[in-house]
Amino acid sequence: MVSPKEKSLDSEGSSLYLEYFRSAPPGVSTFDIQGSPGVNVNVADNNLSKGFFKGAGKWPVSRGVEVSLTTTKVSREPNDIKVKVTYYGQKETSDLNNAMLYLTSVDVALEVDTHRTGAVNGDKADKASWTWGPRGHGAVLLVNCDRDKTNSRKMDSLDTSPPNATDLKDMSTMVLKTCGPHSIFEGYSLCLNISKEDVDKVEVNLEQDFQYKAILGRNITTYEMSYNGKEKTTFYLEGLFFPDVDFPGLVSIQLTLKEKDNKVLKDALIFTDEVVFRIAPWIMTPNTLEPLEVFVCSVPDNGAFLEKVKSLAKKANCKLTICSELDNRRDRWIQDEMELGYVEAPQKNFPVVFDSPRNGPLQYYPIKKILGPDFGYVTREPVDPNDVSTLDSFGNLEVSPPLTVNGKEYPLGRILIGGHSPTYDGLRMTKVVRDFLHAQKVQPPLELWSDWLQVGHVDEFLTFVPAPSPKGFRLLLASTTACYKLFQEKKKAGHGDAIMFKGLKVETCTIDQILSDETLKKENEFVQSCIDTNRDLLKKELGLSEKDIIDIPALFKLDSDALACAFFPDMVNMLVLGKHLGIPMPFGPIIDGKCCLEEKVSSLLEPLGLSCNYINDFYTYHLLSGEVHCGTNVRRKPFSFKWWNVPL
Which of 170, 273, 336, 570 is catalytic? Predict the structure, then answer.
């Protein structure tokens, strides 16, 4: 009888290596080998060449000649696959002996969606690895961070009760295939395993007694099962944790096949298989994507503001969600409390709110009112609450549209956050949030300089708007230089006495007074130098040229700590709903019955096909150190580009 030597894995399945020379009688010189239909015989003579050769032929009996068998056919009955070895003497005219090997072929494998089509496939190649790009492969898991159970207050990923039918739709499937004669499997056990490092990152569910139960993950590293008579058993997997600084996002599941009741070989593996999943990242959406829903708070003094936002949402065909006074507890800064993004797997995507660590009166709104069916939730907070600063509000968290920089593609754009100067230490966004953003990989963060501002948010000096150009957008930057230039032009035209803040219950001033105020001028020269530092960094890191940037007139003033705040409503801090812009009304100098600042901004943006709608936020937001963007938030349509195709 020919004896098997070992088993190993290759792309065809299991290869069986034969010690054919053990059965060779004395005087043997050569041999040939033949198998049943569906058996592939592979012979390699290591004395002559490298590599395996398929097909019939006579080979020298030598330890340098290796034989392996694979089969493409699953057995119907035990031992129905036959392999015959014939041995020949020196003259090779007649055979000296024959040996027969009887085999049973079974198909045991874990199958997942390696092609990222939304359906499990039987591709055995590369399922134990994960690669990026349009030619990449590997299965995807969603963090099950929404709440599909109406009787639960927890995210599904934190709820250990059995999943319901809706919850299962958020999960990825894995199929265990066990094809072959039933009697063969009865002598073996199948085990699913996950490492201790990954055990808290994933949960695997299986139908048992007419409901789905967790059988692997959380605290369970091994699940042993007997053959259930089914050729396919489906498991449902959910991610429990987003990629982060100490977790790259990859999770592997191993399958082992062991022989039962074999005390000698109780730890010997008959067969092993492995699949790898990557947990989907949290993705931000830029202003260039289609708006779907606008969020705004209702507070006692902003009724007129709400009406303007409502009108703008209607123009943009957006849903409007108003956070009530009961829920916001008079905290109007909904942009600072949260950022709206999404997660996506091939079979599904859903929005996810990222709750900031600022923890103002609005802190419970995202988890109490936004978390729900197909609307997820995530947050990151430092261990020490004293590590949180104004820079941790999410007006300091923006994202660019898609970019290509020096040949490097950023198809989902780059996240922009504000921090301290490149030349000295200062405030930064808290490390746990920065680490989380970097760990998502697909929108590499760029840290700008924003702690020269009183509030310290990047949305105070920049925003992006859609535009008909090769890049598809324009970057708007606040510019004190542009404001002084405009006022000087109006003075030369004889309008130096035009009044600013006319009709407001604040001290008015004229163009002449602004231009003659040397202290204000020096303060704005400093502010412009800060913006220019960011301008240079943005041009370099985002691959922008001057034609991609539009300067929006702005003025700032410095407080007692030499930190800048807007002198008049900061028009860059706008609400972008497609082509409809909600811009803070600047209350600039009135010339010929029109605000010259509004006229200037409209002349810059309307040729791009944008509609400029000016909203009075002076008392309700501006005097409280914020503007329209700070008081609103937008859920947008996800990218059509799939994140797993990012060329990393």
Answer: 336
Cα torsion through 262, 263, 269, 271, rounded to 10? 0
Q: Which of 297, 323, 596, 630 is catalytic?
A: 630
pTM for the predicted model, two decimal places: 0.91
The residue from 107, 459, 551, 570 that is catalytic is 459
**107-279 has which CATH code?**
2.60.40.1700
Strands (E), 218-268: 222-226, 232-239, 250-259
Name the DSSP class of 125: T
Rounded CA-CA distance 55/3 in Å is 20
Closest CA to 394 of 460, 339, 453: 339
Residue showing tokens 């000296």: 96
Identify the active-site residue in 137, 457, 495, 580. 457
Please state, in angstroms and rounded to a whole number, the distance separating the CA atoms of residues 463 and 500: 25
Q: Looking at the chain, how many residues does it have?
A: 648
Poorest-confidence range of 33-42, 565-574, 620-629, 631-640? Answer: 33-42
Domain spans in the chain, listed from the N-terminal domain onward: 3-103, 107-279, 283-645
Task: Name the residue with higher pLDDT: 55 or 610.
Answer: 610
8-state DSSP, 217:
E
Q: Annotated catalytic, 532? A: no
Domain 3-103 has CATH 2.60.40.1860: yes
- Under a CB-based contact definition with an 8 Å cutoff, are residues 406 and 209 in contact? no
Q: Would you say the CATH fold of 107-279 matches that of 3-103?
A: yes
User: Cα(557)–Cα(624) distance, rounded to whole angstroms?
Assistant: 14
Neighbouring C-alpha atoms within 13 Å toward the C-beta of 476? 26
- pLDDT number for residue 48: 62
Q: What is the CATH number of domain 283-645?
A: 3.75.10.10
pLDDT for 7 beyond 60: no
Q: What is the pLDDT of residues 410-444, one digit of tens each?
A: 999 999 999 998 888 889 999 999 999 999 999 99
| Helix orientation angle between 518-542 and 480-492, rounded to the nearest 10 degrees | 130
CA distances from 68 to 14, 354, 523 (A): 10, 54, 81
Is position 630 annotated as part of the catalytic site? yes
